Amino acid sequence: MEQFTYQVPEKVHITTIIPILNEKKEVAFEIRKQQHKFLARIVHNTLRSCIPYSYKLANGYGKPLYTIDCAFPGIKYKLTDNLSSQTVSIVSQRVQLIEKAYQFRLDSHEYFFEKDYTGAGYLKCDNDLVATVSMSLKLNTSLFKNSELDTILIKSTTQKFAGLAALLYHTFYYYGA
């Protein structure tokens, strides 16, 4: 399995680009925040930053690969494959009392993404596990500043699945950015 990592700073702005590095420490992907739609932006600004964002994934050169968007956070998520211009609905379902899993069909493959009790995310394609995403402990990155980063580890069978798993994890399960 290929391994990828990315670090999420404590504060992520709409212009922040989060690089995802491969095993050689080269940028394989970038995660970027999507701007809220008009109504969600008003609610978000009124409540002072409590509405989660959706994200888009680009390759290391900034070319968009996948985009997750929604009408309002938590309602009608859609995944767009920017290479094929295919847009599909992401269906959420309860798998435990409060946990949700997400399912969609893309390029005639059935995808399923869920998180377990440890916080690790699992991406399955046609019922085969193709990627896992987990978060390590926060690391203090400077001796003089209180700057902490969350480090996210991705293990995947292919680079494509790694990027898709990172995007799904960051949109649906990572609430710090």
**Total number of beta strands:** 14
Q: Which residue ranges are poorly predicted, with pLDDT under 50 across at least 5 consecutive positions? A: 141-146
How many helices? The count is 2
- Class by alpha and beta content: mainly beta
What is the first-to-last residue Cα distance? 27 Å
Order of helices and strands: EEEHEEEEEEEEEEEH
Shape: globular
Helix % is 10-25%
Biggest sheet layout: 14 strands, antiparallel
What is the beta-strand fraction?
A: over 45%
Calculate Rg over CA atoms.
16 Å
Mean pLDDT: 84
Produce the secondary structure layout:
Layout lengths: L1 E8 L7 E5 L5 E7 L4 H10 L7 E5 L4 E9 L2 E7 L4 E4 L1 E4 L5 E7 L2 E7 L5 E5 L2 E8 L3 E2 L7 E9 L2 H14 L5
Antiparallel strand pairs: 1-2, 1-14, 2-3, 3-4, 4-5, 5-6, 6-7, 8-9, 9-10, 10-11, 11-12, 12-14, 13-14
Describe the 3D structure.
- It is a single chain.
- The chain is mainly beta.
- The chain is 14% helix and 49% strand.
- The protein has helices at residues 38-47, 159-172; strands spanning 2-9, 17-21, 27-33, 55-59, 64-72, 75-81, 86-89, 91-94, 100-106, 109-115, 121-125, 128-135, 139-140, 148-156.
- The longest helix is centred in the C-terminal third of the chain and has 14 residues, at 159-172.
- The chain is globular, with a radius of gyration of 16 Å.
- It starts with a strand and ends in a 5-residue tail after the last helix.
